[in-house]
Design goal:
Length: about 775
Amino acid sequence: MNMGTNTQMCNNIFNEELKMLLWKALSLISLLNSFLSAVSVTAPALDVYIRSEGYSDRGKTSFTRGIAYIKVNGKDYSRHGRGHNVVVVDGATGVILSSKVFDTHGKRYAGDNLRDHLKSIKGNKIVLVAVQEDGSQYSSSAVNALKMLGARGSVRGSYRSSFAFVGYAGTGQQAWVKQKQNNRYRRPSEISQKIPLSSRDYKCQNQTLQGDNGVIYSPNYPERYPDGQYCMWKIMVKASFQVALMFTHFSLQSENNTDAVCLYDGTNQTEKMLAVFYGGQPPPRNGIYSSSNSLLVVFRSDENGSFYGFQASYSAVKCSGPLGMESGAILDARISASSRMNNNSTPRQARLNFIEQGSKEGGWSSLVNDREPWLQVDLGSYTTVTGVATQGKNSSKLRQWITTYTLQFSYDGVIFQLYKEPDKMSAKVLHGNQDSDTVVYNKLISPINARYIKLLPVTWHNHTSLRMELYGCQGCSSPLGMESQVISDSQITVSTQWYYNPPKSARLNLGGWVAYSANRRPWLQVDLGTYSTVTSVATQGVNWFWRSLWPWHHYNLWIVSYNLQYSDDGKAFNFYKEPGETLPKVFNGNQDYLSVVRNKLKQSITARYIRFKPLRWNGYRVGMRTEIYGCLECAVPLGMESGSISDAQITASSQSDGNHSPVQVRLHFQAEGSKAGGWSALTNDTNQWLQVDFGSYTRVTQVATQGMNGADEWVTRYKLQYSDNGVNYKFYQKTGDNSVTELRGNRDRDEVVYNTLRPSLKARDGSQAGGTMAKIIPNGTYV
């Protein structure tokens, strides 16, 4: 279906809104008549069972420290973690919206995180809570949030006490809100409750949703949606963010596209239409992104049959990170062009900041007689592009650059569309360069969602030569559903299992799957349900296998190394190999039972089935937990280069003079006049430092450095410190390092060197580093 047909269809939906209102009025009359003639009405209900076991409780689960159970209609959704286990259920449909655990016994900030989570739950939501082992140590800050949901009395409880709670986030008092708690040495706290589902707070039309994340779904989901529906959701996130919408389930009529979901880039239907999805044209698994902080979603069904509808999650994201031209993440083979001047000016030299090296010219150049030159980038998968940066050719002799250009994009590399701004009939002409080396960045008012991007020079200086970078969101790095249970129990299969640890326990942060001891070729397989793009995988050891038998050994079971296999049909499997390699990739696993080790794939996998093949393991049985990723990862610039981090937030131990100040430390800062191309300390010693204040708790996953532009000065090695308050600092230590980690610096002036932090510097999480400030301490310099 082309965009014109999509627009016409969604406009028809808009024009028929009056008709839909009339239909709804008639439906209300019919409903009223039915109600008046009915003798009784039985609302659907949930069977809820909650059991909280304290560490010292009599009658707790044998050979354990206590377990928290939260069952809905017979299925356990508890995370089985120490502290407060929280499950949120939609009060209209019974859909499980989230399941989280907060270690309020052992982690200092867990109470704050629990409080923030509970306060974020709004509207017709049922909140189920069970404490495991103990939750009294760090839960005081969450007491008021629990009371807002209906809790009463001494919510915090005493040391190692049990606590079970059924709460409600909507308006009005509910008779089924309950709370049970017992002090230590007594029996576990239990609640068995039938909760009627009610759509009284559910508004199909004109919902305005705010916050960092949430879930929307069709009426009656996961059952069939009714005929004649017209629903609108206006999603608004923080001003500096964009909306990412990910469909987790989608089932609409395929032969009749009048049942459809339409997305608009803004708050009303006069804004640009981003996409329209129906059964024959489902949404991409890696999501759709708005260009601003708002997105309008419209769902409409006709009166000619229905399916099971959809569920989608939205989140606030930063979608402005470099996509890999400069870093090399985009491989040479994915960069092509209409022509090349010679073998010294090839398309692969079109990377931003590529420098002239001997006979290799500093950029791509087309043939002289190429009348329609272009440069094309294959992003490898469906990607949102929000910006483009260009440079001219880096050359000691030639002055060549493009001054204006247009863009085209494609989903398949065959059919291309011109990039246009909203309400414009002609292609957008973007401004290029005025010299060889200055980077000129163009933000796209209307983001492009595509796999292939083609840049077409319109005008140029002397010759068509350029270097470039693309910016946006690399689709495919979000969890695909093991931990969240979007992947069902039946989709997880194994070679064999130990009695107490079935395949369904192989979810990240749950208990763990364990193979039978006699099994010598173990495997764990996940059916993703449909063809998916997998970009990384994570593993953990087993959390409570040994507790069910011999509690003194429960820390000793994890996978040390493994292979990956993938399949389209679940029968014929291929080993994953890295590009250019002939042998299967051996992935590093875990070093303990608790830590999560995530391995990113250099080349993504497109398949339905993923199989883990353990090679080496710790302990005499094989056991593991896992998550598989295929969408959005935190790896966007935080604002040094762009300027969103202000000058006042950058400080240093010293500066050599006013022309080498800390504010000049921004990536790609260029020397100009008397201003040096970077920061320099007053003296060259390891007592010098550079500090960035992020202003609030921030997760840092990567650090990039350059040397001094215009001078042979750079840092060859450095260390990182981080702090919550700017007073007390800790050194960064990489996973597996026994001492403070030294990070690799630079070897020349301008090359950008990236260091990925594992673990990341992550706020409000006692298991990883966290803070508001990062400090770089040089440990080796070259002058």
